[in-house]
Amino acid sequence: MKLYTYFRSSAAYRVRIALNLKQLPYDAVAVHLLRDGGQQKQANYKQKSPLGIVPALETEHAVLTQSLAIIEWLDETYPQVALLPDDADGRARVRAIAQTIACDIHPLNNLRVLAYLTKNIGITEEQKNDWYRHWVNEGLAAVEQLLANDPRTGIFCHGDTPGLADCCLIPQVFNARRFQCPLDDLPVISRIVAACESLPAFQLAAPAQQFDAE
Amino acid sequence: MKLYTYFRSSAAYRVRIALNLKQLPYDAVAVHLLRDGGQQKQANYKQKSPLGIVPALETEHAVLTQSLAIIEWLDETYPQVALLPDDADGRARVRAIAQTIACDIHPLNNLRVLAYLTKNIGITEEQKNDWYRHWVNEGLAAVEQLLANDPRTGIFCHGDTPGLADCCLIPQVFNARRFQCPLDDLPVISRIVAACESLPAFQLAAPAQQFDAE
Asked: Which positions, given as ranges, span the membrane (chains A, B) (predicted)?
C-alpha cells in the first residue's frame, strides 16, 4: 500500500496511526502542501484525490480518499487489531467522537481554509489565531463531555484498546498545542492523550518522525 | 425513535432521508436554530448533543449524534434496504463521497460558522456569499469527478439503489441552489439529483415538507 501523506497533515496523521496500530507496512509518498504552489493541487495528484487533499491510500484495486473512510476500510480488510467496537451502539459512539473532530473542528482549521481567510478575506494574524482556537476549544469541550459522561470511556476513548476515535483525537490535540489552545479544562482528553503517546504506534506516526518532516 | 431536527439543517435532512428510505417511523422534535438565541445551545439539548448541533437520534438505549454515524447505526440496526454496499471497496467509496460533503463542504458553510464570520470577523454579505459558493463549487466539482470517473456510479451515486452518498448529496445540492451556486458543470450530480428527487423518501425529507418549516 502507498500512503500519500504530508508530515503535518492531521488527516494523514490519523491514517498513519491506524496503519501502525495494525502493524501494516506501507510506502509513504510525500505530497508537500506548500511547495510548488501546493503539490496536492497538481493534476497528477488530483487524479488520485479530486479535491486535492491528503491523505490518499493506493491499494491493489483503487485509490481511497478521506481519512475516516480509509481507516474503516483498513479495519474491514485487516480486522486483526480492531479499531471499531463490535456492537452497533459502540460503533456509533466512536464514529460520533471521530466525526466531531473530523467534521466540526478540523475542516475549519486546515490549510486551505486558513489560506482563504488570509488571502481572500484579509484577516489579521490575531484574527486567524482567534478563529483557530475558537473551533478547537468549542469542539474539544464537546469531545470532553462525550468522554467524561460515558462509562464506556476507558484507558482510551472507548474501552481499554486504542481505536478510531483515538486516531482522530491525538492529531487534533497536536494541532491544539501548536496553536497554544489551553487544555487545562480537558482532564479526560489529557489522560487519554498521555496513554496514547506512550505507545509506539502513536509515537512513530507523529509529524516530527516522518521522513518528510522539516 | 426521536429525531431532534431543524427543517433547514442539511445534516438533519440526511438522516430524514435515511429514515424514509428504510421506512422507519420516528417522532420529530424541532430544535429551532435561530429562536431563543438558538435552542441547540440550551443546556437541556446540550446534554443530548454536547456540541449543540442537530441532528441527534434518541433510541431506546442512547442519544446518537453526528449524521453519518447515525446513518451507519441505522444501516447496521435495520439492515433491510441497505444504504452501504456489501463490499469493503464499495463502502470506502461511498463513505469518501459522503465525507467529501460532510467534512469538506458542509462544515464550512453551516450556521455557526457563517455567524462567526459575520459577527466576529465582520465580513460583508458579498464576502459571505463568495465564501459559501467557493466551498460548494470546489467540493461539488470533486464529487462530480468521483462520480464521473467510476463505473460503479449508476442511477444513484453507487449503483442503482440510493444510499449514504445520496443522503448527503441531495441536502448539499439543496443548499447550493439556495445560494445560487451554478450546477451547470455538474451533469452527473444533476442527473442523480433528479433521480433522487423523483422518490418519495427524498421528497418527504425536504425542508419545505417538515412540520417546523417556515
From this structure: none
